[in-house]
Batch of 2 targets.
Target 1
Amino acid sequence: MDRSANQMDALYREVIMDHHRSPRNKGIALPTDARIESFNPLCGDRIELTVTIDKEKSLVKNCCYQGEGCSICMSSASMMTEEMIGKGIKEAQEYIGNFRMLMRGEKCPLLIEGDLESIIGVRNFPVRIKCALLPWTAMAEALTQIEGKQ
Ligand code: ZN
């Protein structure tokens, strides 16, 4: 582990490692309505995100990820999928927008609670922000792709 990761609050680190060890929603969402591959060259994180949409209700029925990368990227992906499943498409897009603002240290109305707080803690380590945001950016792209098909 590098220095910035060692400096992270112990509790945050524990939550991140838990998602890293026991990933939620890992695999491929079938049937696949959108598929995005994302790469973070700064760290080598690579993620494939797949999304299934409930077209009648216009919501995220399922989303899964697979790939390889650092613990921050992988646990962020795990938490992101948990957060996104069941959300309306617009609601999901709004959430991602707010989440990005929070990661950049900007004020936003979104209140983050639970496991995701640990990912927000990463914003104190600028070199890792790209790792944390990669899955969220991929999800935003997937939702844009889905909107284009509608
Ligand atoms: Zn990374």
Target 2
Amino acid sequence: MRRLLFAANWKMHLGPADARAYLEAFLPATPARPGRDLWFFPPAVSLETVARGITGRDDLGAGIQDVHWEPKGAFTGAVSVPLAAQAGARTALVGHSERRHVFGESDADTARKIQAVLAGALIPILCVGETLAQRDGGTTLDVVRRQLDVGLAGLDVAALQTVVIAYEPVWAIGTGRNATPQDAAAVHREIRAWLRGRGASITRVLYGGSVNLKNVADLLAEPELDGVLVGGASLDPSGWSALVSTTVP
Ligand code: PGA
């Protein structure tokens, strides 16, 4: 049976006091469900609040939205894997499209970050996905394969099965325009073929991009999807509670 992963990417929202209020509303409304993991990616300043707030719930995890690849040093504004771990992170997003497209992060940067996250014994979620121009130009699969080739270069099978992949088409993020379950599944199949070609058969592959309460059941009805990575629809505790409790056909 699939173990579904619901990942909440809060982006630049919800400071420590907001995060505390969020969990006060969310936790009592959302008992653990067998076969479901829920991971929160708050802003770095709220990470410790979230990690402490979810203590005792094995189905819940806290993670950081981005890391620097060096463990420490003179990198003003950056957060390393050991620092995130000290604040309670079990997992880290790597190569989110906003990091790639707003902050100019390269595939080579994602590779360094994946290595650092694994070295720190955290679980990386590598985000991949094409822009609208790339989709219209017919290069979606080439783009995604290159992001995997470079981002996951040199990893052994155990590492490839520790990593989680999130397929997030850039044109679907924050736009209200989600990929259809069939669009997502087609790319997921390519990602799985890439992984299987390297011996990894159990890696979890998520979909992200305008997932909401209305479309989540249809998306997760597609067996290729092991879960979802959600931005906007994760910011309201009652909406997120309803979404993660959705009955999957
Ligand atoms: P969205 O964001 O759900 O608001 O489209 C998804 C993401 O960026 O991870």
